[in-house]
Amino acid sequence: MAKVNIPNFKLNNGREIPALGYGTWLGLNDKMVFDITDLPKLVDTLSYAIDIGYRHIDTAHLYRVEPEVGQVINKKIEEGVVKREDLFVTTKVWHHYHREADVEVSVRASLRRLNLDYVDLVLMHWPMSISQDGVDEKIDYLETWRGFETVLKKGLAKAIGVSNFNVEQLKRLLANSKVVPASNQIEINLNLGQKELVDFCQAHNIVVVAYSPFGTMVPSHAAPGSPEPKLNNPTMVSIAKKYGKTVTQVTLRYLFQRGLISIPKTVSKSRVVENADIFDFVLDENDVKTLAEFDNGYRTVPCSFWQDYANYPFEKTDVKLEIPLALRKWKNGANQDID
Ligand code: NDP
């Protein structure tokens, strides 16, 4: 069986976090409905990923797969493949749970679904607070963060962090709270370099985790009119060829060389191996420069349907969209059998 060797970064709480993780968001289909067709494959691939050496798993309440992710983790612990302390499990608190006391409710429910005593990192998924009915609750994320500090104090999470926070929001959080977030999980890929935000986080010892690391390069995210590079982009193909790697490996390696953690999602075993096989080569300065030129600020995940809500973190556009129901209301398990 293939084995992968993934190095660690250090969080500001002194604990280690693997530089590459396994993402578990199955996404919405083209009707904007959450689709569990690939869930058995996700379970199988995650199980394989742990077998071959992945130790970092990224999930969330929103993803509706915490029960299945927890089953895989517990099975691997029972089988003696890993110990709990070898794994780094991240989950996230959704918009509905932004009142201070509700953060603990949400984290305890995630732990119950995951069947774990603690998570290694829990993130505030977004800075906005929105009810299941789409009402803007306008709860200050500083209040929500106090709930995170309590969860940390109680040992339900070993570290606390945020996701989708911009520089201004982070500055305000740092100026008004006791615990510095261990991590900010944000979209970063070749089209969206986020230099200012990454520089700010790195200067403040906040580890940056890159979600959607392939951007619109992969067919599932390649919206019509979305920019290059795609998988067959000639510049990318020629750089990949030079190192004997694939275009996706070059992409993940580039992010790693920027000091970023990536959490690619795949339900393919060969890609699980491929995505982690990036730690045995170094992109040279010229290639790094060429790759940086693809940065044009394009967002793969703009979530513009939240743009009129308080604390929406990105630039607003002219588009008016309804929030997909699947991002507002759901039962907790993908199989909809868990409250
Ligand atoms: P990714 O950039 O990980 O892209 C996933 C897509 O890429 C899938 O279609 C997958 O297909 C394909 N893929 C994976 N590996 C390869 C490869 N080596 N070659 C070709 N295609 C490949 O995007 P995601 O949006 O899924 O982001 C990753 C993770 O980040 C999520 O799963 C989630 O955990 C997290 N996330 C967090 C967000 C937040 O708000 N905090 C927002 C969005 C994501 P296949 O499965 O068929 O291999």
Automatic annotation (TrEMBL):
InterPro entries: AKR, AKR2E, Aldo/ket_reductase_CS, NAD(P)_OxRdtase_dom_sf, NADP_OxRdtase_dom
Taxon lineage: Eukaryota, Metazoa, Ecdysozoa, Arthropoda, Hexapoda
PANTHER family documented for this protein: ALDO/KETO REDUCTASE (PTHR11732)
Domain spans labelled NADP-dependent oxidoreductase: 20-295
Organism: Loxostege sticticalis
Official protein name in the record: NADP-dependent oxidoreductase domain-containing protein
Membrane-crossing segments per the record: none
